[in-house]
Design goal:
With 258 residues, the protein is an alpha/beta fold. It has one domain: 3-Layer(aba) Sandwich (Rossmann fold). The chain contains eight helices and seven strands. It has a seven-stranded parallel beta sheet with strand order 3-2-1-4-5-6-7, with helices on both faces. The longest helix has 29 residues. The protein starts with 8 loop residues before the first strand and ends in an 11-residue tail after the last strand.
């Protein structure tokens, strides 16, 4: 099926980990003929991914950037434009989860860092890239959020706040750009089997307990998130904007059950 995005150019942030969501989305878009810029603080990881994409016959560029710093985002966009031209598809996937605890006990500096990366970072990329999309009257922005931004999650106040803010930012910018052919949507993810959800990395008992609370009976796979992201990037989703699509195996519906 022709999705109408062959030869478009995309930027995927947070794409360094081979077991991560950004990595899977980058490869899925490349398989549809999209040229890819991959950004992460881990340059070695995105450089390896960019090489893999080139071997698929697509153009690719890797950049190292801390997206919580606006000047680094601006410099990154300049490098991307030089390498690939204007970006048509932006996937804001990069995020951190490091500030666990209660409001009164977490460090204010840690709160600020998580908000900077998870919320300010996507805003910085959107600020720099969306005007050219609007000018060309075609663009796709896909913000990777979390069900924690909708229903909350105990012990993750800054993460949930940043992800809830990202959903609100999606809605606002969707209204701004709808008349210019740019769609902006959010994927609110539940438990996806990235590297942190593996036996050996996480206690097996905890892992089993998490999995049992998912009505579909398993964690989601990064590739399944990638499938939805590619759909939202495609012409098939041209009438969808300002939406939050929940991808969690109905886990959030089960959140308050014993």
């Amino acid at each position: 099926m022709d999705l109408g995005i062959a030869d478009k150019s995309a930027l995927v942030t947070g794409a360094a980990s081979k077991k991560g969501i950004g990595y899977a989305i980058s490869l899925a878009l490349a398989r549809e003929g999209v040229n890819i810029a991959v950004a992460d603080i881990d340059f070695e990881g995105v450089e390896s991914l960019a090489q893999a994409i080139k071997e698929m016959g697509r153009n690719a560029v890797a950049i190292k950037v801390n997206q919580g710093i606006y000047s680094e985002v601006k410099e990154g966009v300049s490098k991307i434009n030089q390498a690939l031209g204007q970006i048509d598809i932006l996937v804001n996937c990069a995020a951190i989860t490091s500030n666990m605890g209660t409001i009164s006990k977490m460090q204010t500096s840690a709160w600020e860092n998580e908000i900077n990366v998870n919320l300010n970072g996507p805003y910085y990329w959107m600020r720099e890239l969306m005007p050219s999309m609007a000018k060309r009257r075609w663009g796709r922005v896909i913000n990777i959020s979390s069900t924690g931004g909708i229903i909350g999650s105990m012990g993750l106040p800054s993460y949930c706040t940043s992800k809830g803010g990202l959903i609100a930012l999606t809605k606002e910018t969707a209204l701004e750009t709808a008349s210019r052919g740019v769609t902006v949507n959010t994927l609110a993810l539940g438990i996806i089997k990235t590297g942190i959800y593996e036996r050996g990395t996480m206690d097996a008992t905890i892992l089993d307990s998490i999995t049992k609370r998912i009505p579909l009976g398993r964690m989601g796979e990064p590739g399944e998130v990638a499938d939805v992201a590619v759909f939202l990037a495609s012409e098939n989703a041209r009438y969808i904007t300002g939406s939050t699509l929940i991808v969690d195996g109905a886990h959030s519906l089960n959140a308050f059950l014993p």
